[in-house]
Write a structure and sequence with these properties.
Number of strands: 11
Radius of gyration: 19 Å
CATH architecture of one domain: Beta Barrel
CATH class of one domain: Mainly Beta
Distance between the termini: 48 Å
Strand content: 35-45%
Number of helices: 0
């Protein structure tokens, strides 16, 4: 446990934080439930939503900064397909599996909403 002082609206609070490494389950504090980390907690970007295994949808609203693939291209699992900027953070959207891109539904500079289809696979 590490202690920190945090100031909110001119009010100072002392908080304790515990670093959780790997897949260790967090311990409840003060009788309150603690949310289990996601399976891919090591990744800074949320996992994209997949519809029927043949497309990737936006996990959050934002702007497309860069598109790294085009239709017809073969991709490998984990390959960065595009970069999505959300809340001033760059999130890499990666291929969920090996496959072939059949359509890219977005382009750099485009503003998207959560759930919008980004890439379709064959």
């Amino acid at each position: 446990m590490r202690k920190f002082l945090i100031k909110v609206n001119s009010q100072q609070y002392e908080v304790e934080l515990e670093e959780i490494k790997g897949n260790a389950a967090p311990k409840p504090t003060n009788g309150t439930a603690v949310k289990q980390p996601a399976a891919n907690a090591s990744s800074s970007a949320p996992a994209p939503v997949s519809h029927g295994g043949n497309s990737i949808s936006a996990p959050m609203p934002g702007n497309i900064l860069k598109v790294n693939v085009k239709a017809g291209e073969v991709v490998k699992h984990g390959q960065v397909l595009l970069v999505l900027e959300a809340m001033k953070m760059e999130n890499e959207i990666t291929a969920p599996a090996d496959g072939k891109v059949s359509a890219v539904k977005v382009e750099a500079g485009q503003c998207i909403s959560a759930g919008d289809t980004l890439i379709v696979f064959e």
